[in-house]
Amino acid sequence: MYYDVNVSEDYCTDEVKGLEESEYQGFCVCKKVKAGEFNRLLWKPKDLGVKNGWYSRIELEFAEGEAINYDQKKAMKSDVFVVRIGGAEGLDKLIKLQPDMISFDYSSPVLRLKSGLVKTAMKENIFFEIPIREGLYGVEQKVMWMRNVRKLLFVTKGKNVVVSSGAKRLSELKRVKDVILMLQTFGLKRKRAEQVLCNSKRLLEHCAMRRHCHKGMVVTSVDDGALKRDFLMKKYGWLMDKGRIKEV
């Protein structure tokens, strides 16, 4: 199963049917927030009316050189919490804050990824995002995007990397086979590229566990939303029935 974990909340409502007819099982609807606005954010997830599974996502944006800090408890109120940073500076501090996923400004002419920090993040089960939309427009921007994406894939070998669309229109939502071909052009073998496509599901499972489990226990069996229902209750419901996973 494949999921697109980054569809803009400004997605064209006239093209929602195209999302439903796509190969993707579900979508994250993304709300972008500037760092200085997060603590006072009053937010209700936007429902695009997609019949597939849909989940909420907040993307907190820090400009290059901006001090990185945020309310971690508030961050967990969205199904997926992503931090986008202008450059690689501050990555060490960000890893300690434990976002679900990290995204970069791939159009940056200077994105110095330190392999040690990237691998530390991976050990902490933090994911890295490659948003395709940023590489679709502008010749110079596209060149930098490709260069920086190649750097990330070289360091990670595709592990804990999630490819998303960032789509605002249906034309920006790429078919699975096209994403696989793109990853192959960056040097990944086809099998590894297919595994990268499955990382979106792994990310959502990880987010569900972080938010709704504690020490091997599901925190109440109440339907707390699609994320818990789709990635815990459906998957582990039989274990709860047998008492192997307890409710608290």
Automatic annotation (TrEMBL):
Cellular location(s): Nucleus
Any one annotated GO CC term: nucleolar ribonuclease P complex
Listed transmembrane segments: none
Main location: nucleus
Gene3D superfamilies: Metal-dependent hydrolases
One Gene Ontology term from the biological process aspect of the record: tRNA processing
Family stated for the protein in its record: Belongs to the eukaryotic/archaeal RNase P protein component 3 family.
Protein name as annotated: Putative subunit p30 of RNase P/RNase MRP
Organism listed in the record: Ordospora colligata OC4
